[in-house]
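RECORD TYPE: inverse folding
INPUT: C-alpha cells
STRUCTURE:
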C-alpha cells in the first residue's frame, strides 16, 4: 500500500490580542538586541552535566 502526502507550509502563530501581549512584545524587542544574541550564544555553548546517568550500579 502506497501513501502519498502533500506537505503544507507551517503557518506562524501570531498573538493578536491577549492581556499579556505588551509583555510579549517587550520581551521580543529585548531578544533582538546584540547583547541578548551574545547571551543566547553563550548559553547554548555551555554543556550541562547529566548526573543521573553517571551512577554505577
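DESIGNED SEQUENCE:
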Amino acid at each position: 500500500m502506497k501513501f502519498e502526502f502533500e506537505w503544507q507550509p507551517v503557518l506562524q502563530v501570531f498573538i493578536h490580542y491577549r492581556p499579556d501581549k505588551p509583555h510579549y512584545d517587550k520581551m521580543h524587542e529585548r531578544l533582538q538586541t546584540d547583547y541578548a544574541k551574545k547571551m543566547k550564544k553563550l548559553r547554548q555553548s555551555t554543556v550541562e552535566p547529566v548526573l543521573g546517568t553517571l551512577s554505577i550500579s
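NOTES: The radius of gyration is 21 Å.
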